[in-house]
Amino acid sequence: AARSRPPPRRAARSRRRPEGKVACGAGPGAMPGRGALCLGLLLPVLLGCGSAQPGVCPALCECSEPARTVKCVNRNLTAVPPDLPPYVRSLFITGNPLTDLPAGAFPAQRLPDLASLNLSGNHLRTIEAGSLALPALRQLDLSGNALVSFSPQAFGEGGSPLEELALRGAVRDHGVLPSLAALLQSGALRNLSRLELADNGLLLLPAGMFTALPALRQLDLSNNSLVGLRNVSFQGLGQLQSLNLSDNSLGVLWNSTLAQFRSLPALRHIILGRNTWVCDCAIEDLVAWLKESDQVEGKEALTCASPDKMLGKALLKINGLDLNCSVPTDLPSQLQTSYVFLGIVLALIGAIFLLVLYLNRKGIKKWMHNIRDACRDHMEGYHYRYEINADPRLTNLSSNSDV
After folding, report:
1. Is pLDDT above 80 for 21?
2. What number is the average pLDDT over the span 29-56?
3. How open is the CA angle 230-234-236, to the nearest 5 degrees?
4. Confidence band (pLDDT; 50, 70, 90) for 330?
5. Residue 129, pLDDT score
6. Mean pLDDT of all residues in the chain?
7. Any residues with CB less than 8 A from the CB of 197 and at least 6 apart, and which?
8. CA 99 and chain centroid, separation
9. 3-class DSSP state for residue 69?
10. How far is residue 73's CA from residue 277's CA, in Å, rounded to a whole number?
11. How many CA atoms lie within 13 A of 386 on its CB side?
């Protein structure tokens, strides 16, 4: 019985080493490859912990990873920080002496989720091709800059998902208008739903500037110096809901423009306040449209700016007797009619003159013969006097005869 009991030291040793447990020690009884095996198991864990660390915030910016927001406001930046964290969704770089956006300024691979980009209040002058080619960009604010060059390929070759573009006060240099119009007409911004072009001092807009924006819903052209919309086409803007034309220099809206407004079924908010309406007979179509349309907001407040006798009069209260139609509305056609009438009158006078000459042809012929005879007698008298003065033999005779 005593021999069948196990030694106590062996039982204790077996309890310290549970079944399935591997020790990473390097004691005298350890296996030779056990340390290498443990290092191989720990290396992926260490690498995984290193890759899970969040992106580092640029030194001159403020970052909020929970809000996925980075703000670099009034930091005297002259270039876009190259180490923006990849989690950023809303980026504010404002109030800096930033002058140029080169290609790849915002790498698409490093910023895949950047959806809202605010670059207002900088000193941006040049936006190069490919500088804004971001796959998730929805909102872009470039207001308060002084743009001189805006590449039509700024958003890349394949188009952009951009939905809102703010250019308030950014295109005061009207030399940038052709490139901006080329960008809008290229079809790269077909998803654009809001476009703001206020405070730019625009006089005229390039023809067909908005024709490739089928998703546009809000268009702000307020606080410019627009004098007319004859070359502006709103065709194709079937989803346009709001059009702000306030604080411009519009004197009249012609019937072609009014017909375009009528053809847009979703357009229900047109703002025309604080314009210089000229209340002569050319404004008659605009007044009739205002009275029948429900598209214009605050149309009761629209008043005449000229002539003096109509100053301050509400457009809705104008009737045909109030309009000054002494100046023809279509001056070229009036001049053409006048020239035709003048030609007819001159032709009639010429025909009458020829008829009178024909009826008095005998008297005119006799009168012409009399004039011819009188001229001939007069010339013979001059010829006779010349012969007498030229002959010395007849000089004394003519002198005696004169005495």
Report:
1. no
2. 45
3. 145
4. low
5. 95
6. 84
7. 167, 168, 171, 219, 220, 221, 224
8. 21
9. strand
10. 43
11. 6
Those residues with Cβ within 8 angstroms of residue 105's Cβ, 6 or more apart along the chain or in another chain: 79, 80, 131, 132
**Cβ(139)–Cβ(164) below 8 Å:** yes
CA distance 44 to 38: 11
The rounded distance, in Å, linking the Cα atoms of 169 and 144 is 5
Give start and end residues of each alpha helix (H) in 118-213.
Answer: 177-185
**Residue 53: count of CB within 10 angstroms of its CB:** 7
pLDDT at residue 25 is higher than 60: no
Give the residue among 267, 256, 254, 255 at the shortest CA–CA distance from 294: 267
What pLDDT does residue 46 have? Answer: 38
Residue with tokens 């739903």: 193
The CB-side HSE value for 360 (13 A sphere, CA atoms) comes to: 10
Cα 27 from Cα 15, distance rounded (Å): 18
Q: Which of 299, 306, 323, 303 is nearest to 314 (CA)?
A: 303
Which residues face 196 on adjacent strands?
166, 220
CA–CA distance from 186 to each of 160, 179, 206 (Å)? Answer: 11, 10, 14
Is 183:152 a contact under the CB 8 Å cutoff? yes
Domain boundaries, the chain: 62-277
Q: How far apart, in whole angstroms, are the C-alpha atoms of residue 182 and residue 318?
A: 41
54-58, 150-154, 215-219, 395-399: the lowest-pLDDT one: 395-399
Asked if 148 and 176 touch (Cβ cutoff 8 Å), the reply is yes
CB atoms closer than 10 angstroms to residue 166: 21
Q: What angle do CA 28, 30, 35 make, to 5 degrees?
A: 120
Architecture of domain 62-277: Alpha-Beta Horseshoe (3.80)
Residue 333 corresponds to which amino acid?
Answer: S
pLDDT at residue 381, rounded to an integer: 79
